[in-house]
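Q&A log
Question type: sequence-to-structure
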Amino acid sequence: MKVLVTGAGGFIGAWVAEYLHLTGLASPRLGVRNSTALVRTSRFGMKDVAIVDVMDRQALENALEGIDAVLHCAMIPPASESEAARTIVEAMRAKGVRRLIYLSSIAVYGAAEGNLTEDTPLPTRVNPYAKGKQDAERVLLSAKGIDVTLLRPSLVHGPYGKVWTENVARRVVSGRWGTLGKYGEGTCNLVYAPDVAEAMIACVESPATIGKAYNLNGTEQVSWNAYWSRLSVLLTGKELPEIDPRPVMRRARLLMPIRELGNFMLRRNRALVMNLYAANQMTRSVFKATEGNLKLFPSLEEMEGYARVTRYIGDRLTADSGFTPRTSFEKATELSAEWLRLIGVV
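Response status: OK
Response body:
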């Protein structure tokens, strides 16, 4: 089987491509926007590459030549998610390719609490990222002429992961972070990146998954306090102290206008922001310093999530595809810590 992996230079897409290549379960074609995205996967000698923007129908049609299935892992700006979904569907129809696995997210459930299944109604008041995923899901589930499966992974972590691995670790080892008492006892729904790759292949091979959406969670759901503490021990050999959450909340409120301004500028004037960034070394230094400081402190949305008790139930995926996540929290965190040391986090 020949599959096109969109976003093959990204965190999850590269894991999917590597998993396919190393297991021999399918032959991957690496869909990337430019050749610089191939740095990671090049070490395995994968040579079937398509330079493709998923918003470009003709480029997609060229990339789909001889393809049996599409694993859509590309990161798309939230406002363009539904348009990208339509473009992929049109290109697939034109080339007679029917099978599509779309990587969505548990973000579609917003801030819901409790045990959430695929039957849980999706809220309408969600952040832009979640709305983009919801819109794309609606487009794909209503599309004719393709066999689509939607996969909603929880918080994907592991080596090469930025958001839930590297950024979390840098915060943990900064000397300014600690456990948050009851405000850090919310559910940390982690799933290991290679398990996500394996789940996508299991869906391709399971006709019972066509036309459905699935939650994908890890083997265990620990608290945020437990995740931070385990990373701290693995990276520094020390337990994290408990800190007063009130100053953290105050800082989150103070930084909120800066975050909102940055997000607004990126949404409305991304080209201008990128031009300013590229203008000179001083500008780049200011941008990097600001971004680094923001990453060390949580947003209000993150703080709310650290206290939220939510579990995304993934039993339906196991029933329909036979897939069960294999990597324990302990093993996944140990492997992540090894990688974090290699890139100099500690």
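Response note: The CA atoms of residues 280 and 286 lie 10 Å apart.
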